[in-house]
Amino acid sequence: MKEFPEIRTDRLILGELSAKDIPQVIEYAGDKLVSDSTFNIPHPYEEKDAIYWINLAHQGFANKSHYVFGIRLKATKQFIGGVGIGINKNYDRGVLGYWIGVPFWNNGYVTEAVKAILAFGFDDLQLNKIFAIHLPDNPASGKVMLKNGMIKEGEMKDHLKKGGKYLSVIQYRLTKAEYELGGVAE
């Protein structure tokens, strides 16, 4: 894969991030509600954070260790969030991550984007397992995983540290075999 892929869904375009996305990344990722619902988005979120994230996405694609997509509305091409998959080549495994700007919450956009990224991970990248974690205070993220057929594996107590606090996370998974069977919703 020499060029960054573009994935189209019914309502979205998942594509390469660019410098022109920086103002929207700062605006949406900078919302404290987004930071509070994720484990890796700081608050305050500044221009240097957006530049770092976009550079990380480009480096990840170059070395095939991360595929980070901007989520855009198909009708307007407006940037609304991000979704990606980090690759562990030794185990044919990926870790899924996503966020979306608060004005776009509760519209099913993340569920639609995750479905497309799971297909990309299994069909294009030939992964055997994709997993994702969410904070217990963000059950909506767990619902996104469940709607995409992912299976809850368990809770990991005090697994991450953010802002000086230890955070527990809930992990979900989907294996290639489960994906091929259409996922297994709880």
Structure description:
This protein has 186 residues and is an alpha+beta fold. It has a domain at 7-131: Gcn5-related N-acetyltransferase (GNAT) (Aminopeptidase, 3-Layer(aba) Sandwich), CATH 3.40.630.30. 32% of the residues lie in helices and 33% in strands. The protein is built from six helices and eight strands; from the N terminus they run E-E-H-H-H-E-E-E-H-E-H-E-E-H. It has helices spanning 22-29, 32-37, 47-62, 109-124, 139-147, 176-180, and strands spanning 7-8, 12-15, 66-73, 79-88, 93-100, 129-134, 151-162, 165-175. The protein has an eight-stranded mixed beta sheet with strand order 1-2-3-4-5-6-8-7, sandwiched between helices. Helix 1 crosses helix 3 (47-62). The chain is globular. The relative contact order is 0.15. The model has no long low-confidence stretch (mean pLDDT 95).
Task: List strands and helices in order, with pairings.
Elements: E1 7-8, E2 12-15, H1 22-29, H2 32-37, H3 47-62, E3 66-73, E4 79-88, E5 93-100, H4 109-124, E6 129-134, H5 139-147, E7 151-162, E8 165-175, H6 176-180
Parallel strand pairs: 5-6
Antiparallel strand pairs: 1-2, 2-3, 3-4, 4-5, 6-8, 7-8
Helix pairs in contact: 1-3
Q: Keywords for this structure?
A:
186 residues, alpha+beta, Aminopeptidase, eight-stranded mixed β-sheet, 8 strands, globular
